[in-house]
């Protein structure tokens, strides 16, 4: 929810600054369908029906596949946008900790309790892991990169994030703003004609 809020906010600020959305048409975004594929996989596996099915053992494998798909999109567009460069940095941090924990992201039960997510705590305590999360403990690896940061200043949006999540959100906000930025190359192409 916080990510969606930040994206909408970035869109609104960019529209107010540039007063149009025409600049988006000139932006070159490669393999956009990879985003749809990656998130489609996650939507398919991160629900109670799949979690309680006989196929739930595939969750970490499919989750890693979805992350690889999204990473390919980021790397394909890496050179074009500063926002994607920032996003990729956070994304790689998340992938590292997830791979180190066999397809799960360690989450701090203490921070989840402070954020009021009692239902999630019950599920994690019962199964040890749920959806893409696992209980953060001395046995989990790279806990520093896990979900252990509580952003309580966002009210009802508050939950527990990783360092990578925060970097990703900042990167996406920058990327959205970049989509509205006038293309410098377009200006350079028109300048010779203007001189004539």
How is this structure best summarized?
The protein has nine helices and five strands; from the N terminus they run H-H-H-H-H-E-H-H-E-E-E-E-H-H. With 196 residues, it is mostly helical. The longest helix is centred in the middle third of the chain and has 19 residues.
How does the helix and strand content classify structurally?
mainly alpha
What best-fitting shape do the alpha-carbon axes yield?
globular
Low-pLDDT stretches are 187-196
- Give the strand line-up of the largest sheet: 1-3-2
Helix and strand run = HHHHHEHHEEEEHH
Q: What is the CA–CA distance across the termini? A: 52 Å
Supply the number of structural domains.
1
Helix content: 55-70%
Oligomer: single chain
Characterize the largest beta sheet: strand count, sense, and whether it forms a barrel: 3 strands, mixed
Total beta-strand segments: 5
What is the helix tally?
9
Strand content: 5-15%
Radius of gyration: 20 Å
Walk me through this protein's architecture.
- This protein is mostly helical and 196 residues long.
- The protein has one domain (2-10, 29-181).
- The protein contains 9 helices and 5 strands, in the order H-H-H-H-H-E-H-H-E-E-E-E-H-H.
- The protein has helices at 2-18, 33-45, 48-51, 59-76, 82-100, 109-114, 118-127, 163-180, 184-195; strands spanning 105-107, 129-130, 133-135, 149-150, 160-161.
- It has a 3-stranded mixed sheet. A two-stranded antiparallel ribbon has the order 4-5.
Key terms:
mainly alpha, three-stranded mixed β-sheet, two-stranded antiparallel sheet, disordered C terminus, 196 residues, single chain, globular
């Amino acid at each position: 929810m916080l990510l969606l809020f930040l994206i909408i906010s970035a869109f609104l600020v960019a529209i107010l600054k540039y007063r149009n959305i025409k600049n988006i048409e000139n932006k070159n975004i490669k393999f956009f369908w990879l985003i749809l594929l990656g998130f489609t996989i996650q939507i398919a596996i991160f629900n109670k029906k799949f979690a309680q099915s006989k196929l739930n053992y595939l969750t970490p494998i499919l989750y890693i596949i979805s992350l690889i798909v999204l990473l390919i999109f980021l790397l394909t567009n890496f050179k074009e946008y500063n926002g994607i460069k920032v996003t990729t940095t956070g994304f790689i941090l998340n992938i590292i900790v997830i791979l180190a924990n066999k397809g799960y992201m360690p989450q701090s039960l203490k921070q989840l309790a402070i954020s009021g997510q009692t239902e999630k705590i019950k599920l994690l305590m019962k199964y040890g892991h749920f959806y893409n999360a696992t209980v953060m403990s001395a046995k989990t690896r790279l806990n520093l990169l896990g979900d252990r940061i509580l952003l309580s200043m966002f009210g009802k949006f508050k939950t527990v994030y990783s360092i990578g999540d925060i970097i990703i959100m900042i990167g996406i906000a920058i990327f959205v703003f970049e989509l509205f930025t006038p293309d410098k190359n377009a200006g350079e192409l028109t300048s010779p004609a203007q001189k004539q």
